[in-house]
What does this fold into?
Amino acid sequence: MTQTAADNHRAEVRKGERFEFGKNWARFLSVLNDDRIELARQSLLRTLKVEDLAGRTFVDIGSGSGLFSLVARKLGARVHSFDFDTQSFACTSELRRRYFDGDPDWTVEQASVLDTGYLNRLGQFDIVYSWGVLHHTGQMWQALDNVKPLVKMGGKLFIAIYNDQGAPTDRWASVKKTYNSLPGPLKLLYALKIIASEESHSLRDSLRSGGLNVWLSNWRDYSVTSTRGMSKWHDWIDWIGGYPYERATVEQMVDFYGKDGFRLEELVDRSSGYGCNEFVFDRVAPLGTAIDVQISGGQSFTRRFGHRLSGPYQVTAAGWTAALPEMAPAAPGFELTLFRDEVLVGPVVPQDDGRIVVAPSETSMEQLETSRMVVAQVRVCQPPEHAFSHLRGHMWGWSAPDLETVADNAGDGGTPSPVYVFHRGRQLPWPHSLHDDINNYGEGRFSHWGQWVYFSLPDGVDPNGQRDELQLLVGQS
It folds into this structure.
């Protein structure tokens, strides 16, 4: 244990700047059993797409309970675990004592991911693992940057970071900050108030769908079904108290690592809610080498369906042209469409040489090279003849019965709807939003559910006055 890390942790807790995650993890040790270890083992193998970790090195950044360090060691990896939280360090140390006492291939230390001197002494690893940790450092982007050099060339980075939902996420940041600033007795009362408010929605939904027993079983069986092994009460406290609290969108994370040679291999996309998006990146190039990839989820239409165009550009009488990347043929009703810097330009038709016009001839080469241009196969749907329906709050309804089969609830294995709302050529920023958030916050949130697209405009005005400036775009994968 480094005394500096321990002292800094205690000081931040005293000042109300940090939640003591380790207290909840200490309770976890009393309920840890073989079944929970097996759930964690299966989870890790499934996400990394491996059969074991024999002969590999594994660093667990912010090890918490130590459960995934334990699993990695059981799978044959040489493990290095560290955590800034004093009691989390103690929990991981206790797991090592129970299962691998005296094992030289599992090291446990108390340290901070913000301590670059410490990180530089660790070397590099085949697998760098940090689940739901770096957004609690108070310097998330610095922490995210600090872990890059720890990954060997050809190694994997498995990381989970809270999703950014804008105003709703800001609200939770305020809740967490308030909780940590309160004295002990008031913390409990404040937590009860927040839990009661949030659980009332869950209770309402349970009563509608399956009755009171559905809601009760969710509380009763939570610790059995959760990989974390906590009761729902302790998980609630972990969530309400989890501070510092930062977050990022899927696109921000992919671009942040893509600029330094990390290619996205796996994504668990929770961009419609407040939970953690999970990423597995492969390090395929040196730091400073940029990689541009499509993203299967996230919030951006063009990053999900678009194919990046790049030079060399050629100027012709019709304008500047670029070669088309390899793409699937357009399905019936879809057309090849150009976007520049996330703005819808319009349909394009390949010339005889297979190139397309991307800009007028008076456009400078500098403008071309600094623009992000993509093409996608798109079906464009204009507003219906009847007026949009005002449903409640900021939420309006766009009837689209012909698109019901691809809605978010269409039962196709969880693939999010390919339908996005565009306003004045720009995509509204928050797809697949919770309907309560569309109602309460607006700001361009939308959702495609059943026969309806529920949406709000960024400025909160009546969309019926801007019907000609609205379109639904359906993307072809």
